[in-house]
UniProtKB/TrEMBL annotation:
Protein name: Ribulose-phosphate 3-epimerase
Pathway: Carbohydrate degradation
Note on cofactor: Binds 1 divalent metal cation per subunit.
Any Pfam family hit: Ribul_P_3_epim
Binding site for a divalent metal cation: 32, 34, 65, 174
Provenance organism: Clostridium aceticum
Biological process, per Gene Ontology: pentose catabolic process; pentose-phosphate shunt
Lineage: Bacteria, Bacillati, Bacillota, Clostridia, Eubacteriales
Active site: 34, 174
Amino acid sequence: MIKLAPSILAADFANLANEVKRVEEVGCDLLHIDVMDGHFVPNITLGPPIVQSLKEKTKMPFDVHLMIENPDQYIGDFVKAGADIISVHSEACRHLHRTIQHIKSYGIKAAVALNPATPLTDIEYVLEDLDMVLIMTVNPGFGGQSFIPGMLNKIKELRGMINKKKLDLDIQVDGGIKPDNVGLVTEAGANVLVAGSAVFNSVDMEATVKEIRRNAK
Ligand SMILES: O=C(CO)[C@@H](O)[C@H](O)COP(=O)(O)O
Ligand SMILES: [Co+2]
């Protein structure tokens, strides 16, 4: 089952409630919320108050991608604000296993994100504890960047690891995902597709969402 998670980083921030309504109406599955702190990545976006105010505007589950240093300090705040899934970067966690348990202690889903240069061995021993792995297909920090083709092998390898361990785990891809590469990433094993600029900057959002679903394998 392919799930589509539009990233609100590419939305019109002055009209966020409407933008969220728009993606819900065209049948998107999750709302991907990019949180950046200006330290882990060179950009600053939004925090728990905005997440909380959006929560009343939609029934879509909130997929919160934390691109921040010391994520443990803020996990509780994002849960209170309405996060249903929280992704932390392995590169930002000194005690990754503990952070995953911290997320799960709130009864929500836990995911780990890996930068393009980070090997899969970072998550090898915590795979059983996860609901999802987020493979970054660009370097985190900005929307609108180009997909890194070398990540296809990483997705395939991860799907192989998951199958070998007989786990039921989502693979999310994030960065530069467009209708013309969803066939490749889904064939490689990804099943949760984040798309920011492809969805929000399209002239016909409904047609783009349909095209993404049609092209997914
Ligand atoms: O986490 C990030 C970037 O750091 C992403 O979620 C982007 O916001 C995706 O945007 P596009 O590459 O699809 O425009
Ligand atoms: Co993201």
